[in-house]
Amino acid sequence: MTFDEARLHAWIATWARPAPLVGSSGHDAAVLAPTSGRPVCCTDQTVLGVHVEVDVAPRRFGAKAVARTISDLAATAARPHATLLALRAPQESSETWLRAVLDGARRRAEALGAPAVAGDLTCAPGPAQLSVTALGTLPGRRTPPGRDRARAGQVLLLTGPCGGSRARRHLVIEPRLAAGEALWRAGATALMDVSDGLGLDADRLARASGVRLVLEQVPIHRDARAAARTSGREPLDHALEDGEDHELLATLPVAAARRLLRDGLPGAPAAAVVGRVEGARRAQVGLWLDLAAPEECSDERARAPVRWRGRGWIHGASDADRSRPNG
Amino acid sequence: MTFDEARLHAWIATWARPAPLVGSSGHDAAVLAPTSGRPVCCTDQTVLGVHVEVDVAPRRFGAKAVARTISDLAATAARPHATLLALRAPQESSETWLRAVLDGARRRAEALGAPAVAGDLTCAPGPAQLSVTALGTLPGRRTPPGRDRARAGQVLLLTGPCGGSRARRHLVIEPRLAAGEALWRAGATALMDVSDGLGLDADRLARASGVRLVLEQVPIHRDARAAARTSGREPLDHALEDGEDHELLATLPVAAARRLLRDGLPGAPAAAVVGRVEGARRAQVGLWLDLAAPEECSDERARAPVRWRGRGWIHGASDADRSRPNG
């Protein structure tokens, strides 16, 4: 059976009632129980063949779409509360496949504390897409974290090693929710998740904040080393340029970072201080590399600090467009 | 210039800061000022060539995507607060066109009291799509309106005439926000907007509520009469089966409806009581027609009440799929 909106709606109507819902199920809009704290929201589109392989298991597709969106809540220190799922797929999609996408999404959302409360189904040509909007809350009245809030004198913390996520990790993203909250409570001001590559995202953070961000070490994931064995690229390049790590980057005072790492950052046992934030004249703003460990670094980047001139991972961009020199 | 995510982001960064935003602009997720009342949310996908003509003016495309989503807030008596815009478009889209879509969307959202606070850009093959998530609030603690809350003895109110929206009205949807709020305050229990055709949506309302809904008159829009001149169909059929009217259907006590209509329903000068809600055995549940005015009705439906057996307007469905007999 192919895409039939009415039949899918009838199936969705059999789902358990989501906990946050106060109003009627299946209504035009979802009315939720009041929340304390400030509302936080974000949205992400996940397209078959762009963000996941065309032959991906449909449940993984759905689960990834949810997890990468909720990672943006983690990067805002917010607690997930609810999700909205909007599925677009072509007429020829099998109902079994469509149900599996939605089921994967709703289960992952539920597991992450953000049950699916509303959605939309659209039959349209072109690759299937699941758009996820995540709602959360941020307690207290402190200025929320932002990628524009790195301050000179802080250190840069990364919640885990990067690179090589394409092997499998990009399908099983674990949003660093507890770590994000702990970092913010500990005094982190800048916070973001690494989705388009550690280099590109750190460079964005530096530019948004108007600082020079100096990367002193790059924790390399074993998947990056594995990828390097066949790619002809260095493990370091994979760690800096592959996307979809969904680790958090945070800037915070050095004492706070040390305390956090000593006590253990929840859900992020491999967290480490990886660099420093420096005030800078406009021409110096951006990401710089000051990598001491020569075994990770076979080229001129060891004679640091040098400006990062790598590329990031932009979904759907041609290879030519992926190169983004920061001149 | 074609789709370039970084360049579009740079342009979006020049937009005025949205009023509800507390956190940083351009962050992974948007942190908003706390709201009073219960959170309300909904999402809708609008696809080029499916929900709008392929040659639509891009600003109209953006504006429609926003208005049809916010109409779902109106159907929940909610006040709009913020929107999230997620644009997917193929590489070959011109930047001028993409900007115009986003600009049309953000202006319409701002005008409807729901500034765009966050979003996503994705380059992917297939027809362009704008997904809009709308956030709003519902004051008080009363049970929210739902399409499953029609009760026997109530009357059915419609905020305006239907049919023929394809001529132009579907591009300039006016969400019945003030009317929705007034209806709910006056005691309406069931509420929904007419998006897939008056007949189909009223039938859905009846089935969700487990009642027999008897339509006694159908206010026919002049666009429906105009369409009938060339379509070979009756104006009544257009009024019952065309989609995207985005008028509200509400059920409420007869005295409350009379009072509302006497005082004038805000933003809905042509509102009228169009039918009644009856308790029904299971086999009788659904929409029935009891149309008295013979000039609107050249066929056997005048010998009412007869069960409605028309079709609705399902975007993207083939003509064969659009026919949904209610057996």
TrEMBL record, chains A, B:
Mg(2+) 4 binds at D28, D72. InterPro entries: PurM-like_C_sf, PurM-like_N, PurM-like_N_sf, ThiL-like. The keyword Repressor does not apply. Pathway: Cofactor biosynthesis; thiamine diphosphate biosynthesis; thiamine diphosphate from thiamine phosphate: step 1/1. Mg(2+) 2 binds at D44, D72. Substrate binds at H51, E244, W313. This is Thiamine-monophosphate kinase.
